[in-house]
Amino acid sequence: MLTTGIRSPVGIKVFGPDLDTIESIGQHLETVLRTVPGTEDVYAERVTGGSFVDIVPRRMDAARYGLGVENVLAMVQTAIGGMNIDTTVEGRERYAINVRYPRELRDDIDELMRVLVPTPTGAQVPLAQLADIHVTTGPPVIRDENGSLSGWVFVYVRDRDIGSYVADAQAAVNREVQLPASYYLKWTGEYEAMQRIAKRLRLVLPLTLLIIVVLLYLNFRSTVETGIVLFSVPFAAVGSFWLLHLLGYNLSTAVWVGVIALAGVAAETGVVMIVYLDDAFQQARDSGRLRTMADLEAAVIEGAVQRVRPKIMTVLSTMMGLMPIMWTTGTGSDVMKRIAAPMIGGMVSSTVLTLVVIPAIYMMWKARSLRASQ
Length: 374
Known about the structure:
By secondary structure, the chain is an alpha+beta fold. It has helices spanning 19-33, 59-64, 69-81, 109-113, 162-176, 190-220, 223-230, 232-247, 253-286, 293-322, 333-373; strands spanning 10-16, 39-44, 50-57, 83-90, 93-99, 116-118, 124-126, 131-138, 143-145, 148-157, 184-189.
């Protein structure tokens, strides 16, 4: 709302040079969008239809009484609209003194016609003898953006993610709505913010993974061990997306923030697993107990078993810290739940898969080295 001005999840801004045509296009969009699955409500802003009282001075008639247009309109401003002529001081309070005709002398067209306008000679002339007064229709609000007039269409979406809804809505609009020349549409609202953030995430996500890879390589000095640790990231993502599916959460910025945080935690637990496996392997080799495949398997199992308790403690501490968020109901709870849910689901799947799959991959790698040395 603050960045786009649209009070609904999806909005359409219609741009063009004529307000009547903009309103017609908006009403057509309103009809078309009601047929798109997921539309809860749609409202096209009426940019025309406001009622106004126009007072247009007749220059020749005013000149007969020695009056100019500014004299007539100054009386209209003062007697009808009201003019602040002074300020009264009441202790620490200040009040403007406004002068105008009482309401009963200005509440309909006939009364307005009898408003008296003073002339230089001192005579009082009714306003009807100096100006034409009539009611006209026009735009209640004129919106201007990027040098063009605009009208807004507000769309409320239910039971669908905004991205797929807008894709279907755009297809329906392109198929059903023919825009005149010089008129164009802009899809905005939360959708515009989502597009902007998606563009940013296309840079942030690869950069996050690159940083993780660089840090892992600097720690292990081995591309193989770096790759093994990275296996824990998709393992964690499996549980993350399963929990999102069960909770009915759509992908959003908050969800991706949780996924990025989960990637760091998953890589951290994978590092600890590799450290324990390397330590057990090194001890077995230094003590001369690493001669056969059975010896290698025993060493890998020993390292993996030592990792069970730290892994369970890490997972439980993380989940215990995040689970209360899933029961909150206050302001901002929706966002926090979507950040916490990927981490909770990812911790469950990474616990199982890291303890089972990474030791198996590690053993396959070391088995090749053991065969080569023999």
